[in-house]
Write a structure and sequence with these properties.
Elements: H1 8-15, E1 32-35, E2 38-41, E3 44-45, H2 46-52, H3 55-64, H4 70-82, H5 88-96, H6 98-103, H7 108-121, H8 131-156, H9 174-183, H10 189-202, H11 209-219, H12 224-236, H13 243-258, H14 266-277, H15 297-310, H16 320-338, H17 345-354, H18 362-383
Antiparallel strand pairs: 1-2, 2-3
Length: 404
Amino acid sequence: MSTSTVTAATTAAADALAKGLEGILAGETSIASIEQGGLYYRGYEIHDLAANATFEEVAHVLLVGHKPSADELRAFKAELVSERALPAPVIDFLRSAAPMLKTGYAVPMDVLRTAVSLLGHLDKDCQDNSPAANMRKSKRLLAKTPTIVGHMQNIIEGRDIVGAATGGDAKLDHAANLLYLMTGKAQPAEYSRVIDVSLILYAEHEFNASTFTCRVIAGTLSDMHGAVTGGIAALKGPLHGGANEMAMEMLKEIMHDVGENAIGTSAVDDWMQKAFETKRKLMGFGHRVYKNGDHRAPILHKLGRAVAEKDTALPGGHKALKWFQLGEQVQKIMLDKKNSHPNVDFPCGLTYFTMGIPVPQYTPIFVAARMSGWCAHIMEQHANNRLIRPLSRYTGAPLRKWNG
């Protein structure tokens, strides 16, 4: 190994080293665009979608490529409903995972990852990467992921599985059915709408870590189930999708340490200052791409706060509005002291907590949304493929002899 053998291309790549591929254009996509002024799904701006579309409509836009007509939407929704139920081996696996979840050796994201992988073994189209087969698999994965999440929560709570034979209630839309599967009872329409919007906000986000993982795997011409399984593993991390869980755990810690009566006082500032001094990583803030704030965050914050203002269930032993007031104080401190804006994971944690959703299920619900974006990217990668293989800068030992 010597410098004389290093090609000009390698030298140029080494000179342009960007850790974490920050700022690197790694490909092209027609699915979504992240800009400082907005987030767009195939040209539709995220505020427009959150206010006027349903998750099923957005999923159709992402997967099929256009806004559905009324007839197309009815057919799309009917197809999703027909694919909700899980194969018996997947339900058996979820039941077998109960002890692992109880001990904490596995968390819901781990179990979801394995269940989705197992679905591949039971899908007749698994090894077929043709556009038609990929579209069929996309719809099955989109339909079945909420069922896995719901059944898993039933098992964690030691209750009978809701809708084992049907995958839920055929009369309910995607978001409402997810809540029904998790709880066994219909939830208020406002809750269903909030979940629906959160799914829209989480559905797609261009070349993020998990989506890029899916595309790297798909770029080898591996199958869709394998690619999304990799995406789930990537999303689990607290620097990516797991941030919504970690953000809520941080707020619970602050509430425990300072108490409800200290909200709005300097006690919260003191807690945050200590976190700054110890260089603690505070989840739910900042973003690799957005520099002036995540466009999705205020949408979900507004909806979640509206739910909190009416809540009487005392999530975590405190009024839901108190959690939002604490979160808003933390947001202000982060903006004033660190010029750091909340990303969508921060209001997500608060909103889901207010609605009584268990914290370990926050990221699995994220998967139920992002499955639409992942599958769209996998199909796009397969349709115009080139193996993704970057270079690296070697920092190890120089040339040496084994017997020298």
